[in-house]
Design a protein that fits this description.
Layout lengths: L11 H11 L20 E9 L10 E10 L5 E10 L8 H4 L10 E2 L3 E7 L4 E9 L14 E13 L5 E12 L5 E2 L6 E5 L15 E2 L10 E9 L18 E2 L3 H6 L4 H15 L1 H5 L1 E5 L1 H10 L4 E3 L9 E3 L3 H15 L3 E4 L7 H7 L2 H19 L7 E2 L8 H7 L5 E6 L3 E2 L13 E4 L5 E6 L1 H8 L24 H13 L21 E4 L9 H17 L2 E3 L2 H9 L7 E4 L3 H5 L4 H20 L10 H15 L10 H24 L1 E4 L4 E4 L6 E7 L5 E8 L4 E3 L5 E3 L3 E7 L1 E3 L5 E8 L5 E12 L3 H28 L13
Parallel strand pairs: 12-14, 12-23, 12-24, 13-15, 14-17, 18-19, 19-22, 21-25, 27-35
Antiparallel strand pairs: 1-2, 2-6, 3-4, 3-5, 3-7, 6-10, 7-8, 9-11, 15-16, 20-25, 21-22, 26-28, 28-32, 29-31, 29-34, 30-33, 34-35
């Protein structure tokens, strides 16, 4: 079960204050209490802007936070105050996550409470600005005098009507400090506010005092940074639609038209990489584009006319022309240009759940999921992508999935650094590793990415998510944080590896020495705004410029991971329970297990016509890919996992219905009425119809009574979207009406279409006629013989008596 720590809502003490005030107990103000999801909510605090977002030697020496306080409760709130607090510098990577859910008492460096407004009505909101210097001897300050990553908290107090002063909400974020700028001691109020409901605020000039010298970062241990830059999207192609050379493709929505256009998500991701290549090539030197082949297939189809269905549950129903053709053409051209200048790697098709894929272990799904992506990427982008790398969307693998990934030779899996149990655990004096050999799976090595940074990057954007590898203790509701706060958390997590101390305070173990490296890996379907995407690469650029980091080509990172194949100490894979919850559903897996054998049998029966535009493989490939899309983990870890699961279930059902329709489209037509044969050996004439756009070879099965013998006509080819008359030799020995059942199957015996019942009647008399004819012939011979005998004897035949000549 997921543990969620709420950072919005009322404090327990706020509810207690209401009770205590009723009985006359005074509550001192302001107070501090841990927010909880229990009890009523009164105020909601959101952070809108942080300046500087990254503290450096050239930035301001005062941290300014702008935000909004909104009354979301059922009563007015009086005496609304805010203050800024700081927790100790982060010294362990796990704290990048867990510090954001600390009790507010953990933020023990505090500023003064500053008034925002004296009264905030129901539904009203007030903007505030609060400042606090990095360092000061005369006044409260953040007390930051060394580079590092610091958790900050903005605390809001107020007095709801009928209650006392209490902490009603807070907001937390990380502040990366690459260097401490020179600054002056300051004094005086540092807060201003302006409420939409009439609140006022003021600012008093500061007075200069002691000057603090700048504190540069430690550049003696620069970290080598590699970064994956994902370009992927949720599956958008309508499911259950087979391949065609004439029909335009169908999409379930036209979201990609907006995403690919100027200002869209995929445009922003691509533009950020283009700008980085232009302005700071050192950053892109360590980057690698991680491209989803399903996205490229979809975008390529969008460069031609395409349709958007009115109802995703009816993929072949009414549809409207799509609007993204021009955007798709432009975006595809840009990514081709970028791929020609940068490292490129393919990810598994449509973020398919590799654990589910391994459980099925069907070659007809394994190939398009793991082997075809690189071919698709290289063909469409006209480049050569990095081979022998697999990046599971979940960031974790089971041993069975690892065996699948390495089935065709040595491969490096990109996994979270929490997804393996280091085989050197317990050995003193050894720093953590970012590449290991995986035990129990021959040929599999793992390149480990920074799990804390990956979790923070996943929290960015308009669809924040929590990766499967995040532990229960570090999971909380991302929706309670503003986009600005979540971006700050990501920037802090990116900066931390470059600002780490020499020894971990949590474990006491030395951290990696000079020559250490780190891999940053956002989620494959990543949703930052264009500005957030640029800010992410600007953070990496700042690290490189400051000397705390260097760019390491991703190919070198992979090569170093592959080299651990000779490491005598292997590490075991660790698969969290949350990954099972986030994976494909049992309903999807059932359908995904049943349909590939049917598709295989159908493809084997289809006719390979070199003159035809559509081959059997091209016709059926989209349905196999739809099964992979149904097993996609995209959206399963976000804010609406139930919606993603429902969409996946619908995709699987639509594939099943489409395959059922294909089998039903090859059948024997019923002649209707009674079929009359002119003789006992007249052939039966039947019509077999093929509604598929590809020819198919069928066999006719006949269930006939014993009085009828049917000759097997063998395999028969039916033309695409056509029919053929089948002449079935038959011999009938009964004049009664007989009932026969005809059906078609593939050569492998798989039934096609529906059986057809035919009633047959013959004009032949069968055995009775033969007996009567035989008896009559015997009597005739007897009579003729008797007459001849009498004549031979010269005796009159008694039969002639009465007819003698007179």
């Amino acid at each position: 079960m997921t543990v969620v720590v709420s950072r919005a809502g009322a404090a327990v003490l706020a509810v207690l204050a209401l009770v205590l005030t009723t009985i006359g107990v005074a509550i001192p103000a302001p107070v501090s209490a841990q927010p909880t999801s229990e009890g009523p909510e009164f105020l909601e605090l959101a952070i809108d802007e942080i300046t500087p977002s990254v503290v450096s030697l050239t930035s301001e020496s005062v941290v300014t936070v702008k935000g909004t306080v909104t009354n979301v409760g059922d009563r007015d709130v009086e005496d609304v105050w805010v203050r800024l607090q700081r927790a100790p510098v982060i010294s362990d990577p796990a704290a990048l996550r867990t510090s954001l859910s600390l009790d507010q008492s953990g933020f023990d460096t505090v500023g003064e409470f500053e008034e925002v407004t004296d009264r905030l009505g129901q539904g009203d909101r007030v903007d505030f600005t609060i400042e606090l210097p990095l360092r000061s001897e005369a006044e409260p300050s953040l007390g930051i005098d060394t580079p590092g990553v610091y958790p900050l908290l903005v605390n809001v107090n107020g007095s709801p009507e009928y209650g006392g002063q209490a902490r009603l909400d807070d907001a937390r974020f990380l502040l990366p400090v690459l260097g401490i700028p020179a600054g002056q001691d300051t004094s005086g109020p540092r807060t201003s506010a302006a409420a939409e409901s009439g609140g006022t605020g003021s600012t008093t000039p500061r007075s200069a005092a002691d000057t603090f010298p700048a504190v540069p970062p430690d550049v003696s241990r620069p970290v080598a940074v590699s970064m994956l830059w994902p370009l992927a999207d949720k599956p958008r192609l309508a499911s259950g639609v087979p391949g065609s050379v004439t029909e335009p493709v169908r999409l379930v929505d036209d979201v990609l038209a907006t995403s690919l256009a100027d200002g869209g998500r995929l445009d922003g991701l691509l533009r950020a990489a283009e700008q980085a290549l232009e302005t700071d090539p050192r950053v892109t030197e360590g980057m690698c584009l991680a491209v989803d082949p399903d996205l490229l297939v979809t975008v390529t189809n969008m460069t031609r006319d395409y349709l958007v269905v009115d109802d995703p549950a009816d993929p072949m129903g009414d549809a409207q022309p799509g609007s993204g053709t021009d955007a798709a053409i432009a975006w595809l051209g840009r990514i081709r240009n970028l791929a020609a200048s940068m490292c490129t790697v393919a990810v598994p098709f449509a973020q398919v759940d590799l654990t589910a894929l391994a459980e099925l272990d069907d070659p007809s799904l394994n190939v398009p999921a793991l082997e075809s992506p690189r071919t698709i990427i290289d063909t469409i982008l006209r480049t050569t992508s990095l081979p022998d790398v697999v990046w599971p969307d979940s960031g974790v693998l089971t041993e069975k999935a690892g065996l699948l990934a390495a089935a065709n030779g040595p491969v490096t899996a990109l996994l979270a650094d929490t997804a393996v149990e280091d085989g050197r655990a317990g050995m003193s004096g050894l720093p953590p590793r970012n590449a290991v050999r995986v035990s129990g799976v021959d040929g599999l090595t793992a390149g480990l990415f920074d799990a804390s940074a990956a979790a923070a990057l996943a929290g960015m954007g308009y669809e924040p998510s929590t990766p499967s590898f995040v532990t229960k203790s570090a999971r909380y509701e991302l929706g309670n944080d503003s986009a600005t706060a979540r971006l700050q958390d990501a920037l802090g997590a990116l900066a931390w590896p470059a600002l780490t101390p020499s020894v971990s305070e949590a474990t006491g173990l030395p951290l990696p020495p000079a020559g250490r490296s780190v891999l940053f890996a956002p989620p494959q379907v990543w949703t930052p705004s264009p500005e957030e995407a640029s800010a992410t690469l600007s953070m990496v650029s700042s690290l490189v410029r400051s000397g705390t980091a260097t760019a390491r080509p991703f190919a070198e990172f992979v090569a170093a991971a592959a080299a651990t194949a000779d490491d005598p100490i292997a590490s075991a894979l660790s698969y969290p329970e949350q990954a099972i919850t986030d994976g494909a559903s049992a309903e999807v897996l059932t359908i995904a297990a049943e349909q590939p054998p049917r598709l295989d049998a159908l493809q084997a029966a289809m006719v390979e016509d070199l003159q035809a535009q559509l081959t059997p493989q091209e016709f059926l490939a989209p349905l196999r890919e739809d099964l992979l899309r149904a097993m996609s983990s995209a959206g399963r870890r976000g804010q609406d996992p139930e919606g993603a699961a429902d969409a996946a279930d619908l995709r699987a059902v639509e594939v099943e219905e489409a395959v059922d329709g294909m089998f039903a489209g090859v059948t024997v037509l019923s002649p209707g009425g009674v079929y009359t044969l002119t003789s006992e050996q007249s052939p039966l004439l039947l019509v077999a119809r093929n509604d598929l756009p590809v020819g198919i070879t069928v066999r006719l099965n006949v269930d006939a009574p014993a009085a009828m013998e049917i000759t097997d006509i063998g395999p028969t080819q039916l033309p695409p979207r056509g029919s053929r008359t089948l002449t079935v030799p038959a011999q009938i020995s009964d004049s009664r009406k007989l009932s026969l059942e005809f059906s078609l199957t593939t050569d492998s015996g798989l039934s096609l279409g529906s059986p057809t019942n035919v009633t047959v009647r013959s004009n032949a008399y069968g055995r009775i006629l033969a007996i009567v004819t035989g008896c009559a012939g015997a009597l005739l011979l007897f009579l003729a013989g008797r007459r001849l005998l009498h004549r031979f004897r010269g005796e009159p035949d008694p039969a002639d008596e009465g007819y003698e000549r007179e």
